[in-house]
Amino acid sequence: MFDTQLVMHDEDYRDILAVIQRLVRDANAKGCYVVDKNGQLIAEAGEMRVDSTSLASLTAGAIAATGGLAKIVGEEDFPIHFHQGQRDNLHISIIASRIILVLIFDERSSLGLVRLRVKKAGAEMAKIFEEMRKKAEQEGAAGGSPFAEITDDDIDNLFSD
């Protein structure tokens, strides 16, 4: 798991968005959501419109719960989850130990195709998040927090009349 705080720059977001937009297209999915294990939505793509805040928090909770189940049966984690519904299906996978990728698809696609495309996209996203981690470590070592230059006076001035 990451020891540093996740800091996402605009370029990182665009890279992630490009990966999930391609995943939605290649897997013929309805929607894709990238969620932090803390339940924060990072990015979304696709035609499906859901309450993404609820989806993110409930997905993170489900991952935490199944992590507890994994420990009970002697596993470290269950990195892939599949939920089949009457109309829509969910494929959920853990990427880079911290990120949850949720793909919603229906009968226009198949579980095999989804798994194949998610595997490829997951590897691409893992590289992006690894680069983000490295940048955050370098900025941290150099004292380069994006908020390091902000003073209490700056904050007071921002909120004063």
What descriptive keywords fit this protein?
Beta-Lactamase; 5 strands; single chain; 4 helices; 161 residues; five-stranded antiparallel beta sheet
Describe the structure.
With 161 residues, this protein is an alpha+beta fold. It has one domain (10-159): Beta-Lactamase (2-Layer Sandwich), CATH 3.30.450.30. It has helices at 10-27, 52-72, 111-141, 152-159, and strands at residues 31-36, 41-46, 80-84, 89-95, 99-105. A five-stranded antiparallel beta sheet has the order 2-1-5-4-3, with helices on both faces. A hairpin with a 3-residue loop joins strand 4 (89-95) and strand 5 (99-105).
Concise overview:
This protein has 161 residues and is α+β, with helices and mostly antiparallel strands. Helices cover 48% and strands 19% of the residues.
Order of helices and strands: HEEHEEEHH
What coarse outline follows from CA principal-axis ratios? globular
Q: CATH superfamily membership, which one? A: Dynein light chain 2a, cytoplasmic
User: Which structural category fits the helices and strands?
Assistant: alpha+beta
Mean pLDDT: 87
Corresponding CATH architecture:
2-Layer Sandwich
Distance between the termini: 43 Å
Percent of residues in helical segments? 40-55%
Which CATH top level class fits?
Alpha Beta
Whole-angstrom Rg: 18 Å
Number of domains: 1
What is the CATH T-level topology?
Answer: Beta-Lactamase
Number of helices: 4
Fraction of residues in β-strands: 15-25%
The tally of strands reads 5
What's the main sheet like? 5 strands, antiparallel
